[in-house]
Amino acid sequence: MRLSTCLNKNYRHALTAIAACVLAACGGSGGSDSASTTPIAPVITPTVLLTIPTKTSPITSGVATNLGLTAKFSQDMLASTINSTSFSVACPASTPVAGTITVTYDAASRLAILQHATDFTANTTCVATITKDVKNVNGVAMASNFTWSFTTAAGADNTPPTITSTSPIDAATGICTTKDVSITFSEPMDASTITATTFNVTNNLSSALVPGSITYDALNNIAKFAVTNPPGFSASTPYTVHITTGVKDLAGNALGTAAAISFTTSSQACAPPVTINLGTISAYGTFGGGAGSTNQGINTVVNGSLGTTAACTLFTGFHDAANVYTETTLNIGLVTGNILCGPPAPGTAEQLALATVAATDALTAYNQMEAMPSGILTNPELGTRTLLPGTYKSAASEFIITTGDLTLDAANDPNAAWIFQVPSQLTVGLSATPRRVILVNGALAKNVYWQVGSLARIENGSTMYGTIIAKAGVTISTAGQTAQTYLYGRAIGLDASVTMVNTTITTPF
Known about the structure:
This protein folds into four domains: 1-42, no CATH class; 48-152, Sandwich (Immunoglobulin-like); 163-265, Immunoglobulin-like (Sandwich); 279-506, no CATH class. Helix content is 8%, strand content 36%. The strands form eight sheets. Strands 17, 19, 20, 24, 25, 26, 28, 31, 34, 36, 38 and 40 form a twelve-stranded parallel sheet that branches. Strands 21-18-39-37-35-32-29 form a seven-stranded parallel sheet, with no helix packed on it. Strand 5 and strand 6 (111-116) form a beta hairpin. Helix 2 (14-26) crosses helix 3 (349-371). The longest helix is centred in the C-terminal third of the chain and has 23 residues, at 349-371. Mean pLDDT is 90; it is low at 1-43.
């Protein structure tokens, strides 16, 4: 099997699929199309990408004593392996929580949810553990136990969740027939309560339920309904979206008021959303091209994978579940996914092959962004602006966010996308003056992209959103800084390294 043939397939689970392709392509004799007679197991194991409460350093504090826990996996998991034995919590750290523990798995969203009948102890540190007994649907287990800590508040959360926005909005008309329905909640929700019973759409003319699939975005508190009938909704037809009080937050509080949102379709299908094909690079929170990555802080967490096409020796200050990469007491960086790099050990030829594919995919995405038609912004300063979805290019060769924060307004369209073409350098914040990118009205980090011709720099304490692919690498904060810097996206260097100090990176999916 040729590698190119494998890569042309539209795989949902990028790294796992590419692992199989790479191994099949490399396993033949002399590079021919014949497959190896000795099967080689894929090197990619499932990992935990996201947790609620969030896994951060310093640890999350002020967690309500009745809050349930959520963990999102990188691959489709075997539900029978996710239970109260493999997913547990101790509070305080050495004392398992008393009472009944219920663990469920939402396959559509890859979310494990732990609910506890007895509240956590107030004002203490708890430790949650997902053991390596959990397996993906192919029977591949996690490489090691996954743990995270948080500190509880003085009491419980008894406030009902609310709906903060919907798409379509209530009473909307002219809605294209293939549009997804999205409901955004005020806080993290229990995905196991968002089902076809509690969240559905009916045809007002026939009163029939519309067939659809339901997923929950734990990072953004958004439930989505997608029509599974290929033509989509019927043309020029009224519909009603129903959300019942059976929907609950992670503390067990029911939605305060049931909602019914009406809309009427047009006669046209939706225009395809603007998307950038990230390929396998989508699984990486950080990728250091052929130059590796360096961490110089003790509070760095990469929620995603870390890669380079160079040797493992070019990683400094990181560890994953299996290995430590030149950490000291001053340079500690947790990678919740896989670390992929070339030999010497722990790097392997198979890992290097996977990283090489990811680097190629990153370059392809970069070129796609660079080639897109765009509107020209004559002022390179994005601070204090509010931008609607679109593709923006700087006439001054750089973009900076220094005089204030940048707001991206999706106008309640969850498919809204922003692509920023930066011929030269991107700068977010100033020394000792952090800045933010702010997402409003349904804007999502996964739909924000930055194509940077040279270096991208995020100053300490800033909060940045989007996938950054920069030719000359990405620098986040400065050595010696203690303020935490946040990137909800990806930091991808094509030709140079990614360096960070006390940084939290959360890979959006």
